[in-house]
Amino acid sequence: MFSFFKSRRKSEQYEMVDQNISEENTTPSRSSSDSQSSIVFEDIENFTNKTEKEANDFYNDPIFQSILQRYRNQGISKKIVSIISVVCVILWVVGVMMYSQLSPRQILDKTKWQTNISINGENITLNEYNSQYKNITFEYWRNGEFVAYEESITWLNPNQYPKENAGGYYLTKRPDQVLIKQINSEFEDTIVKSKEFAYENNFFYISDIIINPARSIEELNNDHIIITDKLDQWRHSSFALYWIYNPILATYTPIQPPNTKSNVLNKLHYADFSPDGKYILFAFEHNLYILEVSTKEVHQITNDGSPNIFNGKPDWVYEEEVAASDRLIWWSPDSSKLIFAKLNDTEVEEINIDYYIKQNTDIGMQYQQSDEKQFESTDQYPIKTSLKYPKPGTNIPIISLFIYDINTKNVESLSDKDQALGKDFILYQAIWVDNESFLMKQTDRTSKMYTKKVYNANSKDINLVKSFNATDEYGGWVEKMKPITLTANGKYIDNYVVNGVNYLAIFDSASSAEPTKIFDKYPAISEGTFDKQHNSIYFLTSFKSAMDSHLVGFDLTKNEYTEFTTTKEDGFYNAKFSQNGQFLSLKYDGANQPWQRLISMAELHEQEQDGIEHTILKQPIINFMDVTSKKLQNTNIPTTTYNEIKLKKEDISLSVQTILPPGFDPKRKYPLVVHAYGGPGSQKVQKQYDLGFLNVASSQLNAVILVIDPRGTGGKDWKFKSYANNNIGFWEPRDIKLITSEFISANKFISKSKVAMWGWSYGGFTTLKTLEYDNGEIFKYGIAVAPVTNWLFYDAIYTERYMNKPQTNPSYEEARINNVKNFKNVQRLLIMHGSADDNVHLQNSMYLMDKFNLAGVDNYDFHLFPDSDHNINYHEGNSFIFRKILDWLQNNFR
């Protein structure tokens, strides 16, 4: 482990011997039989007799006597000399004591370290530093020593409340229990007493529970859904066993498709209640089934599910880039109708992924989960899997919509005669606004042409509400969308762009093309929450800066705004409201140590603006903040600052985070590590508490860390984001090099020979493009984890959103890693990748290394993680990769 303080070495003494003395003239050595004690005493006696004689001769010398007499006459008394001698002895003793307790480096740090410094003209107060405190280490971080614990809160809806109670109930989890609790109350009820249960001589462990949405938790004979044996498939989807759980009877009944073997339990894609709690919809092998809770009868809705046909379930690209969910189903509010999507991937190309270590039952990639038992020994052949993965310019999934009637059990297609978006259009969002109106947002395959349509369940017609080109309108594109919020009487709250800024707005009906009210004082960075009791809307805003997140509200009755967290101060807040908007789990996420409080909005509405903060802060903290505080008391924490750096000659500012190591001294030299992601609309620099890997790196490498959000990233308006349009890989390296070079020029404490950059995924691409563009001028080292190296290899929906189709855009060539010879001017490069990466395929790193070979670039290291996906977490891979980054940088900085 790297230590910031060099260990104090024991002093070593050497006898200096004249090498010119001949062997004959040296003193004969004593034999081992001589008495060592007598020899020592004999030497002492000879030395004493000699020195006493010399001293007496010197003392009696006339010249010495005359000089001594002269000094005595000048008045230096023995008393003064004695006092000076005593003081010197005391200082010597204190020095020895300090030296025995502290290393020379620690003593030096104690005398040099100061709390207030100036960097780039900005006054910075450094975090307290004590050489006897511990620094943040890799081990502390991986053990979760400084993690800001967050209480799991799942608010119950009013239908689930115990009868004749005020509300504010929520579900929370403990290591061995699932509890129902109430805000500001001692109420506590155990809904699951043990997370382990037995079924047919096997034990199962509960990972989650879904409460019946329409019945009180106090009702007898109530059924809920239990989830066990979950196996992740992709980012959001999984395979798992689902059970109907009855707390009163303590029974667990597996949810299974009909006509399956009684002795085999099949894992499902998902299972969930209808809004009225009378039905459970579940998916198995890409088909949909519906189970009636009261009778336990199962009806099959679709029967054409296959590796190419996805019913009610997204394929890989829809899950990753569009829906951000494991399902594509939409219940009407009254549970009488169900609309589901069918994705046809027949014409979509496949990529193959081999597994070398995992067994069949551990692989979540495949369409069907194998129940075959594998031998414990190593397989002779890799397990081969395939994945439907459309790449730019190739065929993407074809989507169609169907409606299922609960009463008639009929399935009908939603026929849309409008083909303006092409047959390969993308459905980005859909919702039932009321029991008859189904709202849909669609785009063409490049996510530029946007249409809003409404399906009417009575007339069975699909009508166009609005259409425009997002690039022409505000220089942007369509991407994953924040949820729509229903209010009352068919009205809804949705995002609306004005002058390139995202705001919330109210629409009167599903067929409204324009909103009736725009909340244009505060830019919105979250969906809205509607509180019917107070006729108010709540949302998070970046009003103060792109790096802040504050909670504000608008009272529709009073027509006025309220800042529930003041935008005059730095802060990053997250809000999780109950379904009716009356209760809130508010988490302060930074920049200081986080806290979490549960709040009744009724209490806040009773206060004037000045009293709101006091009302919030008087609520009890529920996230065990004191436990983390105690661990931090004797810990040296790096100092973090946040800045908006305005670019010269341009009306643009970039968000930059700076991390200074513990005990920072501007008179010393430090390595510099730059970290970035840089993807369009993404954001890395936010004022959030994070004693994570970047703080560990700063502490253990004794390095300064810069985190930079270049042009094209999120948090700001569309003018800033639109720099990424058709310009992937252009602005990121230029902005990062500019900020880094100016930082180094303005601060003499950076060692110019120890400047590195690292990133993961898109951040790996940004790192490589920056090194390519920089040509070894500023950056000497780089680390790219799972990087994109050629955008023709990435998925079509993400890439064409910013780059259009490759057939029409020559910028694809400029966006890839081209000038590989420039990497010869870098001191060293490290590339790491998971062999089973389903997101950024290993093909990217292979492509780059082939280019390196052809260009004679050999100053790089490569590490492959067997069977790991994009997260690199298989077989301790995630811990290993971060340790590898630290060790690799440390070795090169030396």
In short:
This protein has 894 residues and is α+β, with helices and mostly antiparallel strands.
As a whole number of angstroms, the C-alpha radius of gyration is 35 Å
User: What proportion of the residues is helical, as a percent range?
Assistant: 10-25%
| CATH class descriptor of one domain | Alpha Beta
Could you give me the name of the CATH homologous superfamily of one domain? Alpha/Beta hydrolase fold, catalytic domain
Tell me the fraction of residues in β-strands, as a range: 25-35%
**Roughly what is the average pLDDT, rounded to an integer?**
89
What structural class do the secondary elements suggest? alpha+beta
Strands, total number = 47
Oligomer classification: single chain
Number of helices: 18
Please mark out the parts with pLDDT under 50 across 5 or more consecutive residues, or reply none: 1-45, 47-55, 104-112
The name of the CATH topology of one domain is Rossmann fold
Strand order of the largest sheet: 40-41-43-42-44-45-46-47
How would you characterize the largest beta sheet?
A: 8 strands, mixed
Whole-Å distance between the termini?
A: 14 Å
CATH architecture grouping of one domain: 3-Layer(aba) Sandwich
